[in-house]
Amino acid sequence: MSAVLRAGLLGLGMMGRHHARLLREIDGVQLVAVADPAGDAHGVAGDLTVLPDVEALASAGLDIAVVAVPTRFHAAAAGILADADVNVLVEKPIADSSKEGQALADLFESRGLIGAVGHVERFNPALQQLRARLADGEIGQVYQIATRRQSTFPARIGDVGVAKDLATHDIDLTAWVAQSRYAAVSAQTAFQSGRSFEDMIAISGRLTDGAVVNHLINWLSPMKERVTVVTGERGTFIADTATADLTLHRNGTAALEWESVSTFRGVSEGDVTRFAFPKREPLRAELEAFRDAVNGEVTTLSTMREAVHVLRVVEASLQSAGDEGRLVRTAETAATLV
Questions:
Q1: Domain limits of the chain?
Q2: What are phi and psi of 282, to 5 degrees?
Q3: Residue 43, Cα to own-chain centre: how many angstroms?
Q4: What whole-number distance in Å separates Cα of residue 99 and Cα of residue 105?
Q5: What does pTM read for this prediction?
Q6: What is the sign of the dihedral through the CA atoms of 146, 118, 226 and 240?
Q7: Pick the CATH number of 126-279+311-336 from 3.30.360.10, 1.10.10.10, 3.40.1190.10, 3.40.50.2020
Q8: Domain named GFO/IDH/MocA-like oxidoreductase: which ranges (predicted)?
Q9: Using H for helix, E for strand and C for coil, what is the string for 49-63?
Q10: Distance between CA 87 and CA 96 in Å, rounded?
């Protein structure tokens, strides 16, 4: 690799414009080529010629590229770049199906290339703090991880439903902070906006380490909510990923004096701590990690294989919802479950 990585960007839409800004700002990277068949709606190309397609981008002599186009184009575009020996960060989900995603992961591994997926919540400061504190055993055994991700409908999303667009965030962050994969899920969906894709999903399941998981996700709420709640044997963490805040509610240790309450042998309220820590822009941190991975460093980027697992969990959830909420085991763990 050259000392400065030559970078390309496919897709100049809502996400692409932020990638373009950051690829110009981070050290060790030079944005040298951009492409979008639809042109440059946000005027982010600057003095670069907007190339017409991924084939033209792949011919630009790149070291790395970011793929920020609609989901149905992810696998084909990343595959063309891999054939040109370009390391790629593709926006989530990895592909339109886990089968496509698996083939893509195999391709990048066979070529010895870095293939990463933009599960950007891994770089949310609150979740990074949460993962480290869980790994240190701060609340002991984790019993449950629950997430809520609710907002209004984004007009820019037209090719997938809320499960592939938003639930992928929650599934990846849950597996990542717990450092455990999904064993099985059940789900319910709703179609309220007149589209062929679901706009609401509720997922329940269990991780392979035994923790119970719950996800409430929709495009039907007149507010924005991004919350992760982790309950363990010694307390509960609450991460607000919209503000990158992390709070710990510890189990109480003082004896309860109220007779009617003290007969209940559960936990009581203890100290509450809101942690202070640096808050960097997650997308910037993710792109820097991509640069570092290409330069041979160990990072917390989502690998393509990890992203395939996330997509398999989404597919299992949609399968369950189509079968009246029946429990569906994920493909990787089905053989080991009773």
A1: 5-121+283-302, 126-279+311-336
A2: -55, -40
A3: 27
A4: 10
A5: 0.92
A6: positive
A7: 3.30.360.10
A8: 128-237
A9: CEECCHHHHHCCCCC
A10: 20
pLDDT one-digit tens code per residue, 100-111: 999 999 999 999
Distance CA 124, CA 227 (A): 12
pLDDT in tens, 148-202: 999 998 876 667 899 999 999 999 999 999 999 999 999 999 999 888 899 999 9
Angle at 101 between CA 60 and CA 182, to 5 degrees: 140
For the segment(s) 5-121+283-302, the CATH number from 3.40.50.720, 3.40.50.300, 3.40.50.10190, 2.60.120.10 is 3.40.50.720
C-alpha dihedral (247, 249, 250, 256), degrees to nearest 10: 160
Place of tokens 């109220």: 258
Asked if 42 and 18 count as a contact pair (C-beta separation under 8 A), the reply is: no
- Closest by CA position to 74, among listed 99, 93, 52, 55: 93
Structure tokens at 224: 């924005």
